[in-house]
């Protein structure tokens, strides 16, 4: 989780040592603190303090009329978890599926840009980033049109009997895609795909193409080259991409709201409605704390397992 | 690089030419399919900006019309919310870029205690689900009795853009050769001169990309704004509301226009960059 302690400049021996040999008066030694002060203060007051504040809110009881008081009422956590665990499970499931799909779809695209696009590279890159510039809510709404009942996509899936399979898997219902889990996962995958492609591209681009040639010279088949050379070297991108996709996807409530029905509510939807509609602040606070803790735990385990701790 | 592998495979099995072509290009085809998946909604948005819908929702094609393009502000509050979002994005960019650049310089140029603590504090907002940040900040404002509106949105936007600016600028400053600054000092440049004439120009691309990222993030943010806006309506919130009340075609017009303006800007920037590079060499 923590960032690297001493980020050495790329050309190691030309580090900052010569700068430090020159005498630094006290006034100068305070310079970094003055530089940090306004920004860090901003983050402490508007990011860290609110989290602490929310922790105290989650153990309060009361109502909007009488006001809320800290009563160390930890039962809110159990009640919230007891009532909303299906939404938690669903959020993790949808986010994990969307992340896997992003990796599956994003890898060939990143590979294409890094190794095969040649002089088209800039144009493909623009095409990857350009969709970003249309408000993502407008683009998500466009999926309503694309996946509409009786539309071409549903028709095609139906004639290929894909919908029979997905319905059997519980991903769709009958002849429709909208308002089913498939639509929500499709929206999530779409929305976070660029966050997978860009880190993958960055790490693939760093791979020396001569390594591929060397693997070929040693009679490795393309698939072996990929499995033994390319993929392991792109691991930092895979880890960064999966994190950048999974974390926001698990907390998202836009796709579930716009493309799903009440049966596809994710934990973000619950937090949003508890906070903005029901005005039950302790429950909203407890839910977002559970979400945060769950994600932090999963991310920590994942980073440990993938063995790239120096990544972030 | 795939040549060796394919020749070997053909020697073994000799599949027909079409199959061979497919095998060699399977990655490119898959990549292009993904690209299509990414761009498809933009095309739909563009096409449906020329629709004349029946009723309040613009989800089904009825017939061609350029009405919405001739009157993009014809819907109540749409252009007002757009103006507000632009204004917010501008100020959030200024705030986040100034504060973030300062932090980035402190982290990249100095060794001090609390470095790792600062690094963690910068990293966490990027690794936190937006709902969590949004709800906790709103809880704070609520309990402080602060009126939700322009200022609370601006505070929130600067908060979540800050980390991205720091990351972008820090990467750039750390990859720069410290000997350049030493050389400037050896040539009797004052610290201020060194900073303005050497350090800042080298860091500029990082600062620019941080600023652009902030602008895009702030302009497009919905989740954090939704919690901290009160009754103020930004453009994403207008779009969100319209998904419930009825989507005017003008939304597609604005979306298409944003897309086209951005693509033109990027292409012009690329061409200018290419020309600069060819001039230099």
TrEMBL record, chain A:
Family annotation (Pfam families): BPD_transp_1 (PF00528)
List where the protein spans the membrane. Answer: 31-53, 92-115, 122-142, 178-201, 229-250, 284-303
Q: Where is the ABC transmembrane type-1 domain?
A: 88-302
What subcellular locations does the record give? Cell membrane
Q: Which GO annotations describe the biological process of this protein?
A: transmembrane transport
UniProt keyword annotations, A-Z: Cell membrane, Membrane, Transmembrane, Transmembrane helix, Transport
Query: What kind of membrane protein is this, topologically?
Result: Multi-pass membrane protein
What InterPro entries is this protein classified in? Answer: MetI-like, MetI-like_sf
Coiled-coil regions listed = none
What is one cellular component GO term in this UniProt entry?
plasma membrane
Q: Which family, according to UniProt?
A: Belongs to the binding-protein-dependent transport system permease family. CysTW subfamily.
Name of the protein in its database record? ABC transporter permease
Gene source species: Streptomyces glebosus
TrEMBL record, chain B:
Q: Which Pfam families match?
A: BPD_transp_1
Domain called ABC transmembrane type-1: residue spans: 82-272
The answer to whether the entry has keyword Transport is yes
Q: How does it sit in the membrane?
A: Multi-pass membrane protein
Q: Keywords on this record?
A: Cell membrane, Membrane, Transmembrane, Transmembrane helix, Transport
Gene3D superfamilies per the record?
A: MetI-like
- Give the UniProt family note: Belongs to the binding-protein-dependent transport system permease family. CysTW subfamily.
Its name, as the record gives it, is: ABC transporter permease
